[in-house]
Amino acid sequence: MEHYNMNLTLKVWRQKNATAQGNFENYQVKNISSEMSFLEMIDVLNEQLNAEGGEPIAFDHDCREGICGSCSMHINGRAHGPWDATTTCQLHMRAFKDGDTITVEPWRAAAFPVIRDLVVDRSAFDRIQQAGGFVSVNTGNAQDANCLPIPKDDADLSFAAASCIGCGACVAACKNSSAMLFVSAKVSQFALLPQGQPERTSRVLNMVAQMDKEGFGSCTNTGACEAECPKEISLTNIARLNREYMKASFLAE
Amino acid sequence: MSLSKSFTSSIGKKLVMGITGLFLISFLVVHVSVNSMLFLNDGGESFNAAAHFMSHNIIIRIMEVVLFAGLIAHTVQGLMLTMQNNSKRPVKYAVNPGNATSKWYSRSMGILGSLLLMFLVIHLSHFWVETKEALYLNGDAPMNSYEEVKETFSQLWVVIVYVLGVISLGWHLIHGFSSAFQTLGLNHKKYTPIIKMLGVAFSVIVPLIFAAMPIYFFVMSK
Fold this sequence. Notes:
The complex is a heterodimer.
Chain A: E1 5-14, E2 23-33, H1 38-51, E3 74-75, E4 78-79, E5 101-105, E6 114-116, E7 119-120, H2 123-132, H3 152-162, H4 169-173, H5 180-191, H6 200-213, H7 224-228, H8 236-251
Parallel strand pairs in A: 1-5
Antiparallel strand pairs in A: 1-2, 3-4, 3-5, 6-7
Helix pairs in contact in A: 2-5, 2-6, 3-5, 5-6, 5-8, 6-8
Chain B: H1 3-8, H2 10-35, H3 45-56, H4 58-86, H5 104-107, H6 109-137, H7 145-152, H8 156-183, H9 192-221
């Protein structure tokens, strides 16, 4: 990939706080390297804003290696930008051309209110996790890891579901702001393993109840979540969540 | 947990949509099979016999009530779900992904369903209302359903409305058929590709046969 520099126009959502009226601001950035990540480009812009005495753009970021799930940005209409299976920090500027105008928005969902600029409050996900996304662990000596036989296929499916980083791209991408892909991953990773069995019924009922309480929409199977998920969580997890939910809600007393 | 909650949570509401949707699909199979008798070259004898059976058989009569219940549940729940889901993003995006992440018809089930509902009102006023009139108001008067179909479909505007109606049906089905299975948790490595293929075939073939009826009679009337 050949290196090049570019000048860009950025249209960024600016909002002072949760209650303030936000609006788009236009910014020019010059000599952006194609090797930079999208967040590094925002860093350059923020340095520039600092130097000019302006207010830097607030955005969530942490690991910058695609595993923390912080960098929530809706870039040109796509969660985490145009590339598949990447977070914003993994998006490189070579995805853009010289002279491009890039629109950057926060996640939009009633359940994810904007706190400031591009930062949204995703604590709804934390509360869903607290409602059932855990396993009970007994005290005493740790068991031998090999004493629980687990089929390799089940372990693989569970691990694939567990790769969900809770970034909220599924909610951001869904026309209904549904959190079903997130919840289905969290329910699946435990439902597939023997360690998850004691809370299997209460987990799915409580997590779905919390999901509804937080104001996420329902799933209409458009598949936009799967298309935007940086960890490529599969829609088959949503089918599993539906099965788990039916089994639990119809059979539990 | 109460049983009613199983149907009123976000997943429960979708279960209602999936179950009623599949039930309405099963009705389409009966409807398209019976109406295909219109194409038999016997002056409508078989079709009239079938129509008489469908309007007088007790099991069919009971199923008709169930069918209307299913249709109303699917419609009301669908409209409510669409409105609820639309309210979950009060501030819209300035830029949308369009068809990059999902198919337009999967995002348009509410609109396609509303079009279908409008078509159904016209469709029922054409045939269902008259059948009931003959049965209840006119003391089970003998009916020539075949002649009635022939006459109705000799009008160009009717043909256009029916063709548009079945086009909405096709797009509604192409998402709805396989989506219902996913909602009911019926997802399997071996069977899901078959279900998806069946869904596409059904959504193309059934509307095509339905569309052929008004077109056939319109062409014959000229």
